[in-house]
Amino acid sequence: MVEDKTAKKTSKDFIREIIDEDLAAGKNEGRVATRFPPEPNGYPHIGHAKSICLNFGIAQEYGGTCNLRMDDTDPEGESMEYVEALKRDVKWLGFDWGDRLFFASDYYDKLYEFAEELIRQGKAYVCDLSPEEIKAYRGTLTEPGKESPYRNRSVEENLDLFRRMKKGEFPEGSRVLRAKIDMSSPNMNLRDPVLYRIKKTHHYRTQDKWCIYPMYDFAHPLSDALEGITHSICTLEFENNRPLYDWVLDQFSWKIRPRQIEFARLNLNYTVMSKRILIELVEKGVVKGWDDPRLPTISGMRRRGYTPEAIRTFCDRIGVAKNDSTIDVALLEDCVRDDLNQKARRVMAVLRPLKVIIDNYPEGQTEEFVCPYHPKDESLGMRKVPFSRVLYIEKDDFMVDPPPKFLRLAPGREVRLRWGYFIRCVDWKKDPQTGEVSEVRCVYDPETKSGFAPDGRKVGATIHWVSAFHSIPGEVRLYDRLFLVPDPLADDGDFLRYLNPNSLEVLKECRLEPSLATASPQDRFQFERLGYFCVDDDSRPDQLVFNRTVTLRDTWAKVKEKGETKDK
Ligand code: ATP
Ligand code: MG
């Protein structure tokens, strides 16, 4: 299901309503404290952006705080590279955690103490069942579970075994620490859940100090409580874990008691957001890296030219809800377009050049048109665009034998050059080998410098161009959706077969207007008639590289409407 959520928000979402109620009831000493708790096992993506905007946004609105917490309790796959990526991307999105960067791994000693305390209270025990047995004993949704034969060990024995687990005396999988709750609970999560398991794995921060690691359901509520979090916002799949979250907190006393609230995660069509799959795409070389502009990662979007403002607007527009839905990626692209429309300087670039010679323009002569960078925003200034006898225009702006709807350049036909003269085609040449048009000959009308003919005659089109001599070379990368189908994971099969083979097209022979010579990475422009473009991180002054951020219109909508092929 694809929902149109473009409607403007008129009321508060349910999370803010809960916070209002808590404040009205005088809870939490009137404070609002949230956190964004990523596991540093991948680069953050647009789904994380939703959570970041929500948590940091709420803190801003309520004059509260938002912690950035690395939820690093599973040593496998976590690394400092991911921590740095998370920090950079949260910052880039425009949020500030101040001095509140935390790591769950910094709480390992405390979490261990809490676990011993549970054992002393008779609420946790060491269980020797194998992982398969634990699963079998758990029962099903319709049948109660069976109690572990180790459930009634004495406190002393449990403490001794747990300490020896910590010392590394037992092999992985041989023992776990479990909460003693209720094996017949209708909520499977309360059937004596595992709190600690043995994992003889190096941790990127605690190194080899620990060989037992706490489970998420144990570490998360306690980390929240230790940080004084008031509202612990997470995604819907944790709804059934909430009773366990509360159970863990109930075993200890707290000044501020966090409250878990779940919301629907963001799903976008034509892409994937599972970190496992993103890692696979990166490791298999399907994309060029975590910041490949085709990925829904924040670093990919940044490289592609998306702005933090556009992403924040998108997160605002989709809002938060309690039921899962899929958002059309076109909505995200619209937010990007809207933002760039206001900010991007307009310039001319020719992606697939065709040479045009103006027969009646003197050889060696040049003139400069002074053109505004933006149709509305004068503060963006002006630039000079040189004009001379030899120009480049787009190949597809000329047709020898045009169909009725084609109003651009054709034999005998006149068009307007953007910011310049009218030109009329008088001849053309074909490459004898390829059969492609290789050169077009035109004459210009010196009386049309203003863009209009004194006799009032009209033209059917205005096309962009660059002066051949003055233009500079550049590479342009055009991106399309990474997958051909809305939900590449729908059928559990090999999602790689749905990859769009044309998700990247590299054009190496582009010609750019000379004002672009000083463009540097992350600068964003509108190439007139072609879309919004951003200077790539690989770009060098002597070898400019641009990424197309987004087309001027939603080209996929047109496909849907008319069943046509997209214009590139
Ligand atoms: P994955 O399931 O792909 O491994 P994750 O949800 O486990 O991702 P975390 O690093 O644990 O990734 O997520 C950090 C925070 O971001 C969590 O609070 C999680 O709920 C939130 N989050 C992750 N994905 C989304 C999403 N698609 N929409 C909204 N919030 C999300
Ligand atoms: Mg997670």
Summarize the entry for a quick read.
By secondary structure, the protein is an alpha/beta fold. It has 13 helices and 28 strands.
Write a structural description.
The chain has 568 residues and is α/β, with parallel strands linked by helices. It has 13 helices and 28 strands. It folds into three domains: 16-263, Rossmann fold; 270-348 and 470-568, Beta Barrel (Ribosomal Protein L25, Chain P); 353-464, Ribosomal Protein L25, Chain P. It is 25% helix and 24% strand. The strands form seven sheets. Strands 13-26-27-28-24-25-14 form a seven-stranded mixed beta sheet, with helices on one face. Helix 2 (46-61) crosses helix 11, helix 7 packs across helix 8 and helix 11 (308-318) crosses helix 12 (329-343). The radius of gyration is 31 Å and the shape is elongated. The model is unreliable at 1-7 and 562-568 (pLDDT under 50). It binds adenosine-5'-triphosphate (ATP) and magnesium ion (MG). Adenosine-5'-triphosphate (ATP) binds at residues 37-39, 47-48, 50-51, 234-235, 265-266, 273-275.
Q: CATH topology of the largest domain, what is it called?
A: Rossmann fold
Number of helices: 13
Q: Low-confidence spans: pLDDT under 50, at least 5 residues?
A: 1-7, 562-568
Query: If you average the pLDDT, what whole number results?
Result: 95
| Quantity of strands, as a count | 28
Straight-line distance between termini: 28 Å
Highest-level CATH class of the largest domain:
Alpha Beta
What number of domains? 3
Q: What is the helix content?
A: 25-40%
Bound molecules: adenosine-5'-triphosphate, magnesium ion
Under CATH, the homologous superfamily of the largest domain reads HUPs
- What order do the strands of the largest sheet run in, or round the barrel if closed? 13-26-27-28-24-25-14
Task: Round the Cα radius of gyration to an integer and report it.
Answer: 31 Å
